[in-house]
Amino acid sequence: MALNGAKRLAGSLFGKAEMPDLGLGDTGKVLPLRPMMERLLSLDREAWGLYAWSREPLEGKFDREQKLQYQRKAEACGREEAVLAAAEAVLEVPDSLVKSAAASMKLHVTTPDTPVGGGQVTFAQYVEPDEVTIFMDAVEKAEALAASEGLADLLGNVKIFDILLAHEIFHAVEFKKENAIYTKTERVELWRKPFSNKSRLVCLGEMAGMAFAEELLKLPFSPYVLDVLLMYGYHGAAATALFEEIMEIAGENGGKVEEETC
C-alpha cells in the first residue's frame, strides 16, 4: 500500500482507523509480527517524534530541527505531568497506579467491546470533561497476539489497557490545565500580520501523551510501538503497511523483515 494509504489507515495509536476501501483488498503483504516489533523497539526517540509529526496537518511549515525542538518540549511536558499525576494519585486501586490516577481525577472509565457504528477501528478515546473509553476488543486482540507471538520478553509485563488509559488521562490533564499547559498554549502564526491567525499543533498533545504514559508506567519503550500491534489484530496487511511507513519516516529499510507465507 502507498504511503498515503497508510496515513489514511491509522492516524495515531488512539485515533480512528478507516478500514474500508484502502486499496489493500483481502490479501496484501503481511510481515510476521515479532520481527516488526523488534525493529520498532530499536527506533530512537527522534524517529518516533518524526512519526508523530507525520500526522500533523501543519507539518510542512517546519524543518526537521524545529520539529525536534517542539518534540523535546512536548515530551518534557508529558513527563512532568506524569510525575505530578503519580504524586497526587491516591492508591484507590491496588497495584494499579494508572487506574488510581484516573480515579483520583474522577474520570469515568468505560470498557465496551467496540464503538457504536461500523467502518472504524478505535482503540481508546477521551471526551471532555471526564469520560475515557477503552475499547476492549482492540485490547484483547492485541494481548492475544502478544501471547501467541511470545512478545513478553520484548514488551515486559505492562498491560496494553494501562498504556491506553494513561494516554487518555493526559488528555484529561490537558483539558483541566488548558490555559496553562504547554501543549494547549503553544501556538504558531499561520499568516503574517495584519491577518494574524495562530493555530495549535495537534501533534504536541499526542507526543506529550505518549511521554506521559511512558513516564507514569516506567515503560522501557515508546508507546508508539503499539500502533502496529493494535492494528495487526484487525488487518495484518494494514499493520505491515504502517510498519513500512514508520521505517521510511525513520530512514530505515522496512523490507528487511521477510513476508509472511501460508
UniProtKB/TrEMBL annotation:
It comes from the Bacteria. This is Uncharacterized protein.
